[in-house]
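Incident log, support desk, overnight shift.

02:14 A customer reports that sequence design results differ from what the structure should imply. Their input is reproduced verbatim below. On-call engineer (initials T.W.) acknowledged and began investigating.
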């Protein structure tokens, strides 16, 4: 099973806590144990891909209708009504069924 790295959007850039030089691109567990903000290079050496979040500075992109539709159908398939409501947000469910 492929590891799917989560993505988080943060308001301000972070500096890599390993080299203290580059802009961080991951918030990840290190091989040594503690979590740290890491740049690509430090992450490739020190980061654990099973416990990592890719960080992107700025606002998340707008979700497309395809994204909403996919999440909605996945929630319905799982019988998760709360997740279905989250997927729809303030849109009308009839647009996607
Ligand atoms: Zn670094």
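02:41 Re-run completed on a clean worker. Output:
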């Amino acid at each position: 099973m492929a590891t799917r790295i989560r993505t988080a959007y943060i308001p301000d850039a972070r500096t890599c806590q390993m080299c203290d030089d580059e802009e961080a691109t991951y918030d990840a567990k290190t091989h040594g144990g503690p979590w740290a903000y890491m740049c690509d290079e430090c992450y490739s050496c020190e980061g654990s891909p099973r416990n990592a979040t890719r960080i992107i500075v700025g606002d998340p992109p707008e979700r497309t209708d395809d994204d909403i539709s996919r999440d909605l159908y996945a929630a319905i398939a799982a019988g998760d009504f709360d997740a279905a409501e989250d997927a729809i947000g303030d849109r009308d469910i009839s647009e996607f069924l």
